Amino acid sequence: MSKAARNQPQPARSARTFDFGSYLRTETVGGMVLLAATALALLLANSPAAGIYHAVRDFEIGPQFLHLGLSVGDWAKDGLLAIFFFVAGLELKRELVVGELSNVKSALLPVIAAIGGMIVPAALAFAIGHGAPGAHAAWAIPVATDIAFALGVLSLTGSWMPTAARVFLLSLAVVDDLGAIVVIAVLFTDGLSVLALLAAVVLCVVYWYLQRKRVTTPWLYVPLAVATWIAVHTSGIHATIAGVALGLLTRVRRDPHEPASPAMRLEHRLQPWSAGLIVPVFAFFAAGVPVDGEALAAIREDRVAIAVIVGLVVGKLIGIFGSSFLAVKLGIGAKPESVQWRDMAALAMLGGVGFTVSLLIADLSLAGAAAERAKAAVLIASAIASLLAAAVLLRRGRKLKNGDGTDDA
């Protein structure tokens, strides 16, 4: 929790009552639930129960009106995940206005890092996969960093890291996920509905106006949020952008008569649902890809899959760390004083955890077995990046406990 968040009044709770919401607000627990859901999905997808797992994931529910007849997996990806992005948008807005990123140079650094973390992986993936079937679009797969997984690994192995490190990683991941969504809108949107997009913009303006007028009733906000999501989804743009947009439009400064700002109240109520249900459910339905010996052998022969792995593991590290280093040395961005360069390297490694949007782009850019291999490559690369970052963070944590906290850069 940031300094700004700690200064906000928190809802009272009895000291004798176990608060499951507070338990889930600890990022370590959220990360464990997320990893458990991923492991279960991989286990089921590579077991005799794979047929049942895929049948449930692909079962379609919802009306066909406004393209809302989606599979269970798509509802988790497009619907539930929008709430997670809303919570991420709330936290990012709070940090930009009253938190760690309220300084311009501090705010610029994760933006520059995200841009570098998109360009370098995309360039590497394009160079390695050039000429292979599907490579003309698959270069976009490694551009995104998964917010939930990256923060989960950070919370599990780097709980000693200062708040500024988490804010940097969150901001970077949000920015490059937004960039990836722009890539999706440009490359993979068939028949963009301008009318629906305009409707989404109007609804966002209404939401902003209600915030400005200090309206608080959920009887207005819930239907408005649902309508915004439907408009964005119908427009052809990935629906999770609706969550980010509304989160960034939410008021974060509290009035004198308020115990907490709207952003703090919403974050407090929604974060346990996001960490304990929404993200794990998405991971459960997204991570179920075959990773047996035959699948791994096929990946070794697939240049696109190799390009995805190199782009995420190597490209993200070079792009994020390199652009951050240059930005600080040139005076464009400011590195948090509490975060050292070796810590920045670990955060750059975590940038290679490309799960949510990377899997989405794999689905959009490829088809059939090629898409399955690319998705398996995303999981392999994410696992490698997670393990490398975890090793650095754990080693760094042990050194700090022993009193060696100096920076060598």
From TrEMBL:
Subcellular location: Cell inner membrane; Cell membrane
Keyword match Ligase: no
Pfam family, one: Na_H_antiport_1
Keyword list, A-Z: Antiport, Cell membrane, Ion transport, Membrane, Sodium, Sodium transport, Transmembrane, Transmembrane helix, Transport
Membrane topology type: Multi-pass membrane protein
Record-level GO cellular component terms: plasma membrane
Catalytic activity: Na(+)(in) + 2 H(+)(out) = Na(+)(out) + 2 H(+)(in)
Single GO MF descriptor: sodium:proton antiporter activity
InterPro entries: Na/H_antiporter_dom_sf, NhaA
Top-level taxon of origin: Bacteria
TM spans (from-to): 29-53, 65-87, 107-127, 139-161, 167-187, 194-210, 222-249, 270-291, 303-332, 344-362, 374-394
UniProt function note: Na(+)/H(+) antiporter that extrudes sodium in exchange for external protons.
Similarity-based family: Belongs to the NhaA Na(+)/H(+) (TC 2.A.33) antiporter family.
Protein name: Na(+)/H(+) antiporter NhaA
Native species: Saccharopolyspora elongata
Gene name, Swiss-Prot/TrEMBL: nhaA
